[in-house]
Amino acid sequence: MTAHSRDEILAFGTATSEGAATTAGLDHWRSLPISQAPQWADQEDYKAAVAELSQVPPLVFAGEVDVLRTRLAEAARGEAFVLQGGDCAETFAGSTANRISARVKTILQMAAVLTYGASVPVVKMGRIAGQFAKPRSSDTETRDGVTLPSFRGEIVNGYEFTEEARRHDARRMVQAYHTSSSTLNLVRAFTQGGFADLRSVHAWNQGFLANPAYAKYEEMAAEIDRAVRFMGAAGVDFEAMRRTEFYSAHEALLLDYERALTREDSRTGNPYATSAHFLWIGERTRQVDGAHVDFLSRVRNPIGVKLGPSTKVDDVLALAEKIDPTREPGRLTFITRMGAGVIRDVLPDIVSGVKDAGLEPVWVTDPMHGNTVTAKNGYKTRRFEDVMDEVAGFFDVHRELGTHPGGMHVELTGDDVAECLGGANLVDESAFEEHYESLCDPRLNHEQSLEMAFLVTEALTH
Ligand code: PEP
Ligand code: MN
């Protein structure tokens, strides 16, 4: 995040009356069909949580969100590459300093590989500080003849398979806010306080065992060190390297939470969702006449929409018209998650339809969600080769059509878990029993993430 003036930081402190016209429609979603909404167990708790969240300080500021929009506009034009990464589902217990720093470090390392290897500025974004709500394919889950509500992310209910844990508890929204706040505080400290200094690329690798991806990283870090020493000797001012912009993002699934954290910017009267810089609409909630699209079309944040393999070009154009009627650069990102087996067949029509309509969204690949399989021992997993094949297909399609492959969106962790199969240091199914930690979808571990960064760098430069 960049430095901001005091006025900018205080912009949400005072609401203005001029904004009334733009904020008037912010509750229209309540009258529309809504998918994936929780059924809060206690209405008094719900009212109290919403009242509290309506008063708390914003997590992000309008000025930062506006800067991100200009960065995304650069990615849409092919002048930058977006890297979004983090947990499928964050957890309250997992929001510790060590785990947060490992995740941030992983994204910084991947960004360093991409920036150095492909000479492209990287827009760094975490699925972090708010990624607590999960869409589910079924409302209920049955185990050994017992049926309970599905786990919907810790902002709604608990993972434990008991009636008490699975009840939809609105007080969890307040806990999610505070957890996001402390997470973001640490992310800001790491990325503004010198930890993200490119001169530390070597240090970021410490503590990891020697293996193929790390050896390659060490080699690159040594090259960066040499370049930095050269620049230092030539008198370059390193101040700009001490800090890096790092943005927060999550799926805007829980509209009760998003609405309560929406604030009017006193500079302009415009509404901003202040729960994160970037919000996306998931594959299951992107109905053009539905509640999620309506609400997100009314806030100023840059908005992403996930597009799965059944997407029709007309739906995409209707979404663009609703969310980005003025075609503002950087406003709209399409995150495609097609599956390695079909991306080369289904993506071209969508991209060319959008291109023919004269639109220039950011095109981001999510190579995770179309490639989920069940392992023989029952774990939900993804094969590293499938993930990389979808990334390759994404680059092929955009190359062919002359559009820009603008970024990637991945589920990853900085920890040494075993959740996805494959990679140079082969993870196999037997490792799941001991090292599978995700409460939702499988993530690339630290090493698989670095390996992916090297492979994507090659794709960007060839
Ligand atoms: C996710 O990003 O975790 C997710 C649920 O994705 P999608 O909406 O693409 O299925
Ligand atoms: Mn997921």
From TrEMBL:
One of its GO terms (molecular function) is 3-deoxy-7-phosphoheptulonate synthase activity. It is an enzyme of class 2 (transferase). Keywords: Amino-acid biosynthesis, Aromatic amino acid biosynthesis, Transferase. Its EC number is 2.5.1.54. Signal peptide: none annotated. Pathway: Metabolic intermediate biosynthesis; chorismate biosynthesis; chorismate from D-erythrose 4-phosphate and phosphoenolpyruvate: step 1/7. Pfam families: DAHP_synth_2. It catalyses: D-erythrose 4-phosphate + phosphoenolpyruvate + H2O = 7-phospho-2-dehydro-3-deoxy-D-arabino-heptonate + phosphate. Belongs to the class-II DAHP synthase family. This is Phospho-2-dehydro-3-deoxyheptonate aldolase. It comes from Micrococcus lylae. The lineage of its organism: Bacteria, Bacillati, Actinomycetota, Actinomycetes, Micrococcales.
